Amino acid sequence: MRRNAVVTVAEVTTAVEPRATDPGPEPQSEARSLWRSLKKALAPRQVQVLALAFDGYGDKDIATILNITTDSVRSHRRHARGQLTLDPTPLHPHD
What angle do CA 25, 37, 62 make, to 5 degrees? Predict the structure, then answer.
């Protein structure tokens, strides 16, 4: 698990936005909007797993925090990916 990390199940249960480094006001607003859309599109447990993964936790750590198996973590991630339709075009295409 990450050093000095304290995560309670209540924090994860509310599925707050990931704590990734803040890139600035405009990207942060866009990220919040995207995160709200994800929360609407996915099951609560999928959101919890993705939020923890985004914060840098590995499958074993996520399983421990949520009291589920690593196979369940992988399953939630796989199903979340399957539910999301993402544009395959790179954000910064090479010229």
Answer: 90
Q: What is the pTM of this model?
A: 0.62
The two tokens of residue 41 are: 């599109």
Phi, psi of 35 (to 5 degrees): -60, -40
Q: Residues 49, 62: contact at Cβ < 8 Å?
A: yes
Alpha-helical (H) ranges within the chain are 9-13, 25-41, 44-54, 59-66, 70-83
Extract the tokens encoding 63. Answer: 């399983």
CA–CA gap between residue 48 and residue 54 (Å, rounded): 10
Determine if residue 67 is left, alpha or beta; phi over 0 gives left, psi from -120 to 50 gives alpha, anything else beta: left
Q: CB of 49 within 8 A of CB of 77?
A: yes
Q: pLDDT of 39-67, one tens digit each? A: 888 999 999 999 999 899 999 999 999 99
